[in-house]
Write a structure and sequence with these properties.
250 residues; alpha+beta; Arc Repressor Mutant, subunit A; Chorismate lyase; 6-stranded antiparallel β-sheet; 10 strands; 26% helix; globular
Length: 250
């Protein structure tokens, strides 16, 4: 493995293990590793990148938790080329699109529409705003080869966002866009995940082939660094396409 083209920035705010994980993720989509060749061991990688073996081990654990690599007894570590389900972690909600790119799944946006609406009572309650007030709603339908994810995002009126500011269909990382646009720092997401049967609208947009396929409903209440509520998003994921991983440290 020649890692001379890669650079670990030890002055960066990005943790070293996360930088190593990013580098290995890039390697996984390139030959020969994309074709199933064994990856170098942790000691070799640590020497090539001039980081500790513990740093490499933590990066490899992250890749394992995302199901990007597999360890085979007495053989070594390889790219996982057997699992077609899409995996992402709940530890870092911010990185969903980045996770997809690491898995060589560059999600397309099939629909991107902005409107003002009077949402459900649940949205008013979550954002702590008075009922019947119109607020901005962004609908995005995403997928790899076909629609697989339906997401509605509702924005707190105190943000003073206009419809035109959200109409750019090229926005791939919504919360990074909001941070740059509004000069705020988004730091916290309170989430709830449940299983449900899809509504007729979800079935139509996600083109259900099997009426009995459930969906995973992911509700996210987003806060800035001052604790202010920024947005409330509800994502509907095809349950036979997605796996959410949760890493818990003591």
């Amino acid at each position: 493995m020649d890692l001379s083209q890669y650079y670990i920035d030890k002055e960066s705010k990005t943790p070293l293990y996360a930088q190593v994980e990013e580098i290995i993720s890039e390697l996984l989509i390139k030959e020969p590793y994309s074709l199933g060749e064994k990856l170098p061991n942790e000691l070799e990688i640590s020497k090539e990148l001039s980081v500790s073996r513990n740093t490499v081990r933590k990066a490899m654990y992250g890749l394992l938790s995302k199901n990007l690599i597999v360890r085979k007894k007495n053989r070594g570590t390889f790219k996982n080329i057997d699992d077609s389900r899409i995996r992402t972690t709940l530890n870092n909600w911010y990185s969903f699109n980045e996770d997809m790119k690491k898995q060589n799944r560059d999600f397309k946006i099939f629909e991107h529409s902005v409107s003002t609406c009077k949402p459900s009572s649940q949205v008013y309650e979550k954002l702590h705003i008075k009922p019947n007030k119109k607020i901005l709603r962004l609908l995005r339908i995403k997928g790899y080869l076909e629609p697989e994810l339906y997401v509605e995002s509702f924005f707190h009126p105190d943000l003073n966002l206009g419809e035109n500011e959200l109409k750019d269909g090229d926005i791939t990382q919504l919360y990074r866009f909001l941070e740059d646009k509004l000069e705020i720092k988004i730091v916290f997401s309170r989430e709830e995940i449940s299983a449900a049967m899809p509504s007729e609208e979800i079935k139509k947009h996600l083109k259900f082939k099997d009426e009995m396929t459930p969906i995973l409903v992911r509700k996210m209440l987003i806060h800035d660094e001052d604790g202010a509520k920024i947005a409330y998003s509800v994502g509907y994921y095809l349950a036979d396409k997605f796996v959410f991983n949760l890493n818990i440290s003591r």
